[in-house]
Amino acid sequence: MGTPEPAEQLRYFKRQQSQIVETIKQLVEIESPSDVKQAVDRLGAVLASRFGELGGRVRVHKAEKFGNHLQVDFKPRGSSQQKPVLLLGHMDTVYPIGTISRMKCRVAKGRVWGPGVLDMKSGIALALHVVEAMLRWGRGKISRPVTLLLVSDEEVGSKSSRAITEGLARQASAVLVLEPAFGLHGAVKTARKGVGEYRLTVHGKAAHSGLDFENGQSAIIELANQIQEISKLVDSQRGITLNVGKIGGGTRVNVVPAEAHALIDVRVADPNDAAHIDRKLRALKPSNLQCRLEVSGEIGRPPMERTAGVASLYAKAKQIAAALGSELREAAVGGGSDGNFTATMGVPTLDGLGAVGEGAHAEHESVVISELPARAALLAGVIETV
Ligand SMILES: [Zn+2]
To answer: Rounded to an integer, what distance in angstroms lies between the CA atom of residue 292 and that of residue 287?
Structure first.
């Protein structure tokens, strides 16, 4: 049989469309929030058996706090010297258990809806059906080595999976990330910002607001001043943003607050800016010298830069899309993914090869069904080429 022409691949995946939708629904129905190990492991077990049925060699990387990470290897006939391509995805979602009863998984208006459907259960479903197709075309053997890694902690920073991702990426010819495409035109992501989270804690001095006001040192007033300073570090032109997304502090309305804190989301486009902002935050000085500041946190995901390797991978993908009759755009985005780690290592990485849709992490999260066959054919083509 052999690998069919692009147009025939597209027709194949159009015939498979309803099966792909069924798989997506199956995966969405199994809720898998990052912080519930049992739940993510339940999804992991289903995926292990589905990829295992295809003939992949399943390996479970046990994790204590998070769900286990799932690795599946597919090897071609004979002893191939070719490096594997790494398909990278995550099983966890941002939605707590029970969300599915409110945000029902359903098919309507040409889309599949539900928690985690776009980010990224449909990406996993695409990988499954693409590998299945490649095995059919190769009469039971894949045409090149493919390694799939599905991690369980991506939505909470990938601390437990990062070393596994990096280890597999080091051996790979390229990394293809199954995160959703950008926008309804289905652009792939060739640059992503680095992401960090910091916590600023202000220690002041408590006092009775009526009897002893003069003796208090308000941590809240100091925090308010610091928030102004932090906002001055924003440089939109350079792609540097800092968002004080959460604050807290104080005990009672009639007590001068001894403690206040802020959580700060930091995004940078340039790796040099990561170190620069880190230094600036750690060097914050109290305006009230009776208060003390404490800064913790880090830029946990370095920026994914559009390196030559990324650009050439995009160029190949663009050619494949053209052969399938569509124009593949690229985008630089603010959100980070595990592709940030692998691109920083210098391994050619292309992100956003998952489904097309809208509303990741939101009530209207959904995937456009009619785009699924073309996304599958694109993924298959890129896997064959890199
Ligand atoms: Zn994601």
So the answer is: 10
